[in-house]
Amino acid sequence: MNNQRILAHFHESAETKIQSATVLAPHIAQAIDLMFSALSNGNKILVCGNGGSAADSQHFAAELVGRFERERFPLPAIALTTDTSILTAVANDYSYREIFSKQVQAFGQAGDILLAFSTSGNSGNVVAAIEAALEREMRVVAMTGKGGGAIGKMLTDADVHICVPHDRTARIQEVHLVTIHAICDGIDVALFGGDVNE
């Protein structure tokens, strides 16, 4: 493969991250405040997404339950993408659209957070999960791209929309990953203050 093509991926990724940083930083800060407040009040974070976004969901939950960069007590986060028996039973008996919403109905309570990933903003099962979360008086942090799609239109003023200003799925996912790490770091700093190296 031509090295120039490989370099183009790195350059576009770096440029997208730099362009996204200023636009997204205030929204990421809002998400950190919202999540820290929920966790401090004994609530939990439910996380969902499809494909690469399912991996992001599991990555985020693992960082909270395990650790990010410092030793701390486990924080309650559940990826709704991992239980194959629930996913396949609901998809088979009801519809694929309900694989996350049924879990939100089962596990979600008022004051909990739903972290919802959809690069297009139009994933039907993520939309359904957000609908279920809003019905349960949960707050939503949505991570999207491509203008935010249907998800961008359904969020309330109490929710947070982190919409990557790009149309290419790979670039959106790359910014989502940096955002996950920024949120985890922000939660740790809110809990303990200072820097990990202090």
From TrEMBL:
<dbReference type="GO" id="GO:0008968">
    <property type="term" value="F:D-sedoheptulose 7-phosphate isomerase activity"/>
</dbReference>
<keyword id="KW-0862">Zinc</keyword>
<comment type="subunit">
    <text>Homotetramer.</text>
</comment>
<feature type="binding site">
    <location>
        <position position="173"/>
    </location>
    <ligand>
        <name>Zn(2+)</name>
    </ligand>
</feature>
<dbReference type="GO" id="GO:0005737">
    <property type="term" value="C:cytoplasm"/>
</dbReference>
<dbReference type="GO" id="GO:2001061">
    <property type="term" value="P:D-glycero-D-manno-heptose 7-phosphate biosynthetic process"/>
</dbReference>
<keyword id="KW-0479">Metal-binding</keyword>
<feature type="binding site">
    <location>
        <position position="59"/>
    </location>
    <ligand>
        <name>Zn(2+)</name>
    </ligand>
</feature>
<dbReference type="InterPro" id="IPR035461">
    <property type="entry name" value="GmhA/DiaA"/>
</dbReference>
<comment type="similarity">
    <text>Belongs to the SIS family. GmhA subfamily.</text>
</comment>
<feature type="binding site">
    <location>
        <position position="123"/>
    </location>
    <ligand>
        <name>substrate</name>
    </ligand>
</feature>
<feature type="binding site">
    <location>
        <position position="63"/>
    </location>
    <ligand>
        <name>Zn(2+)</name>
    </ligand>
</feature>
<feature type="binding site">
    <location>
        <begin position="50"/>
        <end position="52"/>
    </location>
    <ligand>
        <name>substrate</name>
    </ligand>
</feature>
<dbReference type="InterPro" id="IPR004515">
    <property type="entry name" value="Phosphoheptose_Isoase"/>
</dbReference>
<feature type="binding site">
    <location>
        <position position="181"/>
    </location>
    <ligand>
        <name>Zn(2+)</name>
    </ligand>
</feature>
<dbReference type="GO" id="GO:0097367">
    <property type="term" value="F:carbohydrate derivative binding"/>
</dbReference>
<comment type="pathway">
    <text>Carbohydrate biosynthesis; D-glycero-D-manno-heptose 7-phosphate biosynthesis; D-glycero-alpha-D-manno-heptose 7-phosphate and D-glycero-beta-D-manno-heptose 7-phosphate from sedoheptulose 7-phosphate: step 1/1.</text>
</comment>
<dbReference type="Pfam" id="PF13580">
    <property type="entry name" value="SIS_2"/>
</dbReference>
<feature type="binding site">
    <location>
        <begin position="92"/>
        <end position="93"/>
    </location>
    <ligand>
        <name>substrate</name>
    </ligand>
</feature>
<feature type="domain" description="SIS">
    <location>
        <begin position="35"/>
        <end position="197"/>
    </location>
</feature>
<dbReference type="GO" id="GO:0005975">
    <property type="term" value="P:carbohydrate metabolic process"/>
</dbReference>
<keyword id="KW-0963">Cytoplasm</keyword>
<feature type="binding site">
    <location>
        <position position="173"/>
    </location>
    <ligand>
        <name>substrate</name>
    </ligand>
</feature>
<feature type="binding site">
    <location>
        <position position="63"/>
    </location>
    <ligand>
        <name>substrate</name>
    </ligand>
</feature>
<keyword id="KW-0119">Carbohydrate metabolism</keyword>
<dbReference type="GO" id="GO:0008270">
    <property type="term" value="F:zinc ion binding"/>
</dbReference>
<dbReference type="InterPro" id="IPR001347">
    <property type="entry name" value="SIS_dom"/>
</dbReference>
<comment type="function">
    <text>Catalyzes the isomerization of sedoheptulose 7-phosphate in D-glycero-D-manno-heptose 7-phosphate.</text>
</comment>
<feature type="binding site">
    <location>
        <begin position="118"/>
        <end position="120"/>
    </location>
    <ligand>
        <name>substrate</name>
    </ligand>
</feature>
<protein>
    <recommendedName>
        <fullName>Phosphoheptose isomerase</fullName>
        <ecNumber>5.3.1.28</ecNumber>
    </recommendedName>
</protein>
<dbReference type="InterPro" id="IPR046348">
    <property type="entry name" value="SIS_dom_sf"/>
</dbReference>
<dbReference type="InterPro" id="IPR050099">
    <property type="entry name" value="SIS_GmhA/DiaA_subfam"/>
</dbReference>
<keyword id="KW-0413">Isomerase</keyword>
